[in-house]
Q: What sequence folds into this?
């Protein structure tokens, strides 16, 4: 590999909002903060990461201790399960929220049979109870699920592994 290609292979692309010159320093700080905080899997896709599009993710991972506490508190019922089952149900629950509580759409997103998703949802309903569908709880669950996903992509926890409980 040529020295030029080696140089470009080590650069992780990131960008922040285009700013007039007085705000260029802020834009640079945001881009660097994104490189520091966003999971390597998000940065390794080979396309630039626009920090302004990743603000929710940055807010969730800027304080790992708070994010882990949120995950531990909101997803506590999943701790009773084996790690593989925990991960599978967390992914199902996140997809279910993002698909508007539609089991068929969730199944398509997860490349799983709809009946499998319905079985997982029954288990999730037993674990979480009626709070799972309470509108006041939805944001907390979504934040916890996204934080869990982002934290499992961090190098200190390893891809696919759950973050340690505090």
A:
């Amino acid at each position: 590999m040529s020295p030029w290609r080696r140089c470009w292979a080590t650069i992780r692309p990131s960008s922040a909002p285009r700013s007039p010159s007085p705000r260029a320093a802020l834009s640079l700080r945001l881009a660097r903060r994104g490189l520091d905080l966003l999971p390597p899997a998000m940065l390794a896709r080979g396309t630039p990461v626009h920090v302004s599009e990743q603000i929710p993710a940055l807010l969730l991972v800027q304080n790992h201790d708070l994010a882990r506490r949120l995950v531990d508190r909101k997803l506590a019922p999943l701790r009773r399960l084996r790690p593989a089952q925990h991960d599978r149900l967390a992914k199902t629950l996140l997809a279910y929220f993002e698909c508007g509580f539609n089991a068929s759409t969730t199944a398509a997103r997860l490349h799983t049979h709809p009946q499998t998703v319905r079985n997982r949802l029954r288990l999730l309903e037993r674990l979480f109870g009626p709070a799972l569908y309470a509108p006041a709880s939805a944001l907390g669950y979504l934040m916890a699920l996204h934080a869990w996903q982002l934290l499992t992509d961090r190098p200190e926890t390893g891809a696919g592994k759950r973050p340690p409980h505090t």
